[in-house]
């Protein structure tokens, strides 16, 4: 794993990957590198205009890329179902749950969930369960990679207040949604092992990578000073999106990745080549993971089948 780069990605010819949030940042880099190494890639994007621009850019960077665009709004469960229905006849070898929102002002998804929990966790939970039949059918080598964050240490999931209705704090809400990602992977890996499935569920995080994720919240609230501060910090201390995507690409393609592994940058959850990352103990709780799973099934109406 030492010094692993995108050039170490094994040949992906014959494999189909779905990457959520592939219109920019980590998702676009992930989609590009998978396509560069032979995979057919579906770019799952919320905004059609930005998705088309990303598709055009990717094709200019990888002229022989086999890529297509699909509309997916993780903050709308009807969109999640429609996207999954559109892939009903597709072979899917890899699902990268990359899309996410960070530290937004308090707002809700179409279905009434707190936006960060609803988008980062519930949307991906529903999508993964709906696409599992396609992943199972792909056989050995199929993987689900969910992108969490080192900031999951900010907060554990509170089963009594999943939507943070008692007291909303944007960064705690973000941390809880990223802990939910890891609890989801933990329980998914357990369930797949119990059924004897070869599908591997793993997680990754990018460290501190310069993307538009950090500026979305300040922009929504028209806090220009905060947006400028974030942009300055991105230039000063963040690693590039290309480097930030490496843990995801490692978890998605490297040989020997184990179920429930968490891959991140080498240096203090911040930057560097991908390695096995530390994680909060609460994200390895069987009881918490099972409870969150059962609650997620009830909230989304999507069950593990």
UniProtKB/TrEMBL annotation:
Molecular function in Gene Ontology: oxidoreductase activity
InterPro entries (UniProt xref): NAD(P)-bd_dom_sf, SDR_fam
Keyword Oxidoreductase on entry: yes
Taxonomic lineage: Bacteria, Bacillati, Actinomycetota, Actinomycetes, Kitasatosporales
UniProt protein name: SDR family NAD(P)-dependent oxidoreductase
Keyword field contains Oxidoreductase: yes
Pfam families recorded: adh_short
Keywords assigned: Oxidoreductase
């Amino acid at each position: 794993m030492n010094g692993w780069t995108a050039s170490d990605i094994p040949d992906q010819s014959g494999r189909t990957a779905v990457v959520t949030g592939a219109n920019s940042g980590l998702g676009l880099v992930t989609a590009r590198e998978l396509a560069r190494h032979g995979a057919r890639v579906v770019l799952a994007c919320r905004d059609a205009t930005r998705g088309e621009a990303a598709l055009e850019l990717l094709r200019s960077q990888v002229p022989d890329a086999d890529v297509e665009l699909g509309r997916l709004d993780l903050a709308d469960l009807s969109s999640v179902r429609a996207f999954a229905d559109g892939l009903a006849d597709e072979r899917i070898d890899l699902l990268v749950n990359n899309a996410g929102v960070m530290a937004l002002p308090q707002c809700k998804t179409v279905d009434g969930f707190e936006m960060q929990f609803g988008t980062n966790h519930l949307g991906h939970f529903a999508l993964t369960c709906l696409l599992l039949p396609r992943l199972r059918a792909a056989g050995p080598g199929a993987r689900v990679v969910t992108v969490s964050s080192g900031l999951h240490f900010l907060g554990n999931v509170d089963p009594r207040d999943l939507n943070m209705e008692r007291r909303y704090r944007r960064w705690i809400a973000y941390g809880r949604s990223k802990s939910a990602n890891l609890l989801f992977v933990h329980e998914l890996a357990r369930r797949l092992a119990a059924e004897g499935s070869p599908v591997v569920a793993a997680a990754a995080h990018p460290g501190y990578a310069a993307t538009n994720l950090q500026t979305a919240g300040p922009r929504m609230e028209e806090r220009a000073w905060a947006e400028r501060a974030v942009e300055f910090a991105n230039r000063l201390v963040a690693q590039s999106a290309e480097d930030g995507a490496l843990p995801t690409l490692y978890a998605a393609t490297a040989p020997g990745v184990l179920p429930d592994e968490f891959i991140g940058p080498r240096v203090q959850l911040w930057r560097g080549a991908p390695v096995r990352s530390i994680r909060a103990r609460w994200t390895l709780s069987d009881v918490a993971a099972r409870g969150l799973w059962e609650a997620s099934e009830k909230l989304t109406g999507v069950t593990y089948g």
